[in-house]
């Protein structure tokens, strides 16, 4: 794992090896049968395992405060919030998502979910939350929308509170077959004005904002596939499967790659075989956080 820092925080670095991590006494492990789990849930467990934490902002000492409020924007099924809420009973947890796939009845008493669209403005007053989290939204917003989304997260955060992002990045040093999929995905994203590699841009946006300080980040790296990446690499491969094979992606990608759906599925299998044969690219996950200025 690498730790980086922007110009607004002290510089430090640390390295970690995924294989060595698996041999140590860990606090967090990957679940079994990740192939049966939703992509967002897999990414949650993968990030938790690689970083050995559920979040990276320095806030855990605040969890004993009964009036501490935490918001997760784009919460999906609520996995991130629900795990925290089962361990910490004092904070009040709030989740918001465009689609109500979160639990509405069976949930801890200190968790509330709301349906809403961050692009239309969060339904909360200024300076409401002590900590605001958002994760795995790299393909959701255009580059211009990212600016407004970040400002909206800052708006609802209290002065002195923290905002944190967790985002996966496209793999680097890919083999020729997987590169065809990545090139097509980048072309597709560019056509929507979506910057698919967004993590470094988030850092730049935060660095340039006069309303935040102490911008910091960590990078965790895992090799794609089981052969080099072990269980973590297999989990990330499952994310790839879901992203490239779940509807409507095959139909959309076929147009950009000029392939029939049958040839698309065969080529994707060839890309997976390429990875497991030893051409295993490195995948990065970013944790980025900052503090709202007083």
Can you offer a commentary on this structure?
There is one protein chain. The protein is of the alpha/beta class. The chain has one domain (31-292): 3-Layer(aba) Sandwich (Rossmann fold), CATH 3.40.50.150. 38% of the residues lie in helices and 21% in strands. It contains 9 helices and 8 strands. The chain has helices spanning 18-23, 39-51, 79-87, 143-156, 176-191, 199-208, 226-245, 249-257, 261-276; strands at 2-5, 69-73, 92-97, 111-115, 129-135, 157-168, 212-223, 282-292. It has an 8-stranded mixed beta sheet, sandwiched between helices. Strand 2 (69-73), helix 3 (79-87) and strand 3 form a beta-alpha-beta unit. Helix 2 (39-51) runs antiparallel to helix 7, helix 5 (176-191) packs across helix 9 (261-276) and helix 7 (226-245) runs antiparallel to helix 9 (261-276). The chain is globular. The protein starts with a strand and ends with a strand.
Give a short synopsis of this structure.
With 294 residues, the protein is of the alpha/beta class.
Number of domains: 1
Care to count the β-strands? 8
Q: Which bin fits the share of residues in helices?
A: 25-40%
Tertiary shape: globular
Give the CATH superfamily.
Vaccinia Virus protein VP39
Strand order of the largest sheet: 1-7-8-6-5-2-3-4
| Beta strand % | 15-25%
Q: Which fold name is given in CATH as the topology?
A: Rossmann fold
**Main sheet overview:** 8 strands, mixed
CATH class: Alpha Beta
Query: Any idea what the CATH architecture is?
Result: 3-Layer(aba) Sandwich
Based on CA atoms alone, the radius of gyration comes out at 19 Å
Order of helices and strands: EHHEHEEEHEHHEHHHE
Number of helices: 9
User: How far is the first residue's CA from the last residue's CA?
Assistant: 31 Å
